[in-house]
Structure to design on (159 residues):
């Protein structure tokens, strides 16, 4: 657990120390919703919560073809526990608004991996408007870590 809090603190310090090139780079993540592909199995395991409120921060580092980002936050997960995460990744600018990419994230929740923190690679997609990004993440089924294939949805607001 200390590793996760230390990682979140390091990401916040890093984000605070980077001078932005544009005013839209720090964002607020507002979580969200999830969809479980194996709905019967999710209900059986008690991992069927599909309303996942929470808050986080995103720091975007824009480039020509890719946007790099740092994320961290907390939300109520599918097992109705608080999930904490911190990570980073990149979005390829597939079109003017569509972003495809991935992240490497450190997670901690009593719901996943027997309550032990773990690092996971995650595929992401996003659709951007001027002050808002709709995000989608795929959490694959991984034996012993995550028992249900799940999609997660959240918004990033760019003040």
């Amino acid at each position: 657990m200390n590793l996760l809090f230390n990682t979140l603190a390091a990401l916040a310090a890093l984000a605070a120390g980077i001078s932005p090139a544009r005013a839209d780079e720090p964002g607020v993540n507002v979580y969200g919703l999830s969809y479980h592909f194996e709905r019967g199995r999710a209900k059986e395991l008690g991992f069927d919560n599909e309303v996942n409120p929470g808050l986080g921060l995103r720091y975007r580092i824009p480039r020509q073809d890719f946007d790099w980002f740092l994320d961290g936050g907390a939300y109520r997960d599918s097992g109705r526990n608080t999930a904490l995460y911190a990570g980073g990744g990149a979005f390829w600018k597939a079109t003017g608004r569509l972003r495809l990419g991935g992240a490497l994230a450190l997670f901690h929740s009593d719901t996943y991996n027997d309550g032990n923190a773990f690092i996971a690679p995650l595929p992401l997609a996003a659709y951007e408007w001027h002050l808002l990004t709709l995000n989608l993440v795929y959490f694959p089924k991984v034996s012993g870590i995550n028992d249900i294939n799940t999609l997660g949805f959240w918004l990033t607001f760019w003040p």
Q: What stands out?
A: Residues 3-24 have pLDDT under 50 and may be disordered. Strands lie at 26-36, 51-62, 66-76, 82-93, 98-108, 118-128, 132-139, 150-157. The first strand starts at residue 26 and ends at 36.
